[in-house]
Design a protein that fits this description.
Length: 290
C-alpha cells in the first residue's frame, strides 16, 4: 500500500517531528510575546486607603467635662454603694477617687484613640503612595520593554513562518502522513509507534484515536519537545559537517548505479537536509531551547 519503505517512513516522521516541535516552540514564544504586549504598560487599579475615623478633640474634651461635672454625684453614688456593702454610713472618699480615675481613663483613651487612628491613616497613606510610585515605575519599564518585545516577536514570527511553510510543503509533497495526524501530537505518536515496534504506518494510525491524541500526549510533548529538538540539532550539525562528502558520494553512486534524482531515497534525503538547514538557521529557536 505504501510507496515508501519502512525505513524511509520512519526517517520522514523523524524529520517532521522535529519540524513540528520547532513550530510548536515558536508558537509558544509568540503567544508569550502577545500576552506581554497586550498587558504591558497597563496601570494597576490601586484603591485609595479608607481612613479610620480619628474622632474629635472637642468631643473628647466635652466628654471629659461632662464626667468632671458629674464627679460629685458619681463619687457620692459609688461611696454610698461602698457604705451599703460595708454596712457603714461613714464617708470614705473612695467613690470620689474611683470616679476620678474613671474620668482620667476616659480622657486619656479619647486622646490616645485619636492619635492611634491618625498614625494608622498615615501608614496607610504612605503604603498607598509607595504602591502608586512602584506601579508607575513598572509601567515605564514595561513600555520601554514593549518595543523590544515587538522587534523580538518579528524575528520569531519570521522563523515560525519559514518552518511552518516547510513543514506544510513536506507534508503535501510526500503525503506519508494523513491529514488527521498532521500535527505535533499525531506525528509524535506515529513516530513513537513505528520506532518501538515492527508495525506499519497503517497499524500506527489504527492504534491511535486522532480526536483524543492531544489529551493523551500533551504533557509528554510539553516536557520532551526541547529534548527532541536538541537531539535533532546535534544530529543535524553532524550531518552538515559530512554534507559535502555525502553529496560527492551520492553523485558517484548515481553515476555507477544509474539512480535517478527522483528516487524515493534521494527525495527523502533532500527533505531531511532541507529541514536540517532550516532548523539550524533558526537562531531564535536555537536560543529558546538552550
Amino acid at each position: 500500500m505504501e510507496k515508501y519503505s519502512r525505513e524511509e517512513i520512519v526517517s520522514h516522521l523523524y524529520t517532521m517531528r522535529a519540524l513540528e516541535c520547532g513550530v510548536y516552540r515558536l508558537e509558544q514564544e509568540l503567544n508569550e510575546c502577545d500576552g506581554f504586549i497586550r498587558n504591558a504598560g497597563v496601570p494597576e487599579q490601586i484603591r485609595e486607603p479608607q481612613e479610620v475615623e480619628e474622632g474629635s478633640v472637642w468631643g473628647a474634651l466635652i466628654a471629659s467635662a461632662i464626667f468632671g461635672l458629674l464627679l460629685p454625684f458619681g463619687g457620692w453614688i459609688i461611696d454610698d454603694l461602698i457604705s451599703i456593702v460595708k454596712k457603714s454610713s461613714a464617708f470614705t472618699g473612695i467613690g470620689w477617687f474611683a470616679y476620678f480615675i474613671v474620668l482620667v481613663f476616659v480622657g486619656f483613651s479619647a486622646f490616645n484613640g485619636k492619635n492611634r487612628a491618625k498614625e494608622q491613616n498615615e501608614m496607610e497613606r504612605q503604603r498607598y503612595y509607595r504602591a502608586v510610585d512602584s506601579d508607575r515605575k513598572r509601567v515605564k519599564e514595561e513600555l520601554q520593554q514593549k518595543q523590544e518585545v515587538i522587534r523580538y516577536k518579528r524575528g520569531i514570527k519570521g522563523e515560525w513562518e519559514r518552518l511552518a511553510s516547510l513543514r506544510d510543503r513536506l507534508y503535501d509533497e510526500y503525503r506519508i502522513v494523513t491529514k488527521d495526524f498532521r500535527n505535533i501530537w499525531g506525528v509524535f505518536a506515529l513516530y513513537d509507534y513505528m520506532e518501538s515496534s515492527q508495525g506499519s504506518l497503517q497499524d500506527a494510525e489504527n492504534h491511535y484515536d486522532h480526536r483524543i491524541i492531544q489529551e493523551q500526549l500533551g504533557t509528554i510533548i510539553e516536557q520532551n519537545n526541547t529534548i527532541i529538538l536538541n537531539q535533532y540539532i546535534q544530529q543535524a550539525k553532524q550531518d552538515e559537517t559530512n554534507n559535502l562528502l555525502r553529496s560527492q558520494g551520492r553523485k558517484l553512486d548515481r553515476i555507477k548505479q544509474g539512480i535517478d534524482d527522483n528516487n524515493n531515497q534521494m527525495k527523502m534525503l533532500r527533505a531531511t537536509e532541507e529541514a536540517n538547514h532550516a532548523i539550524l538557521q533558526a537562531q531564535y529557536l536555537r536560543d529558546l531551547i538552550r
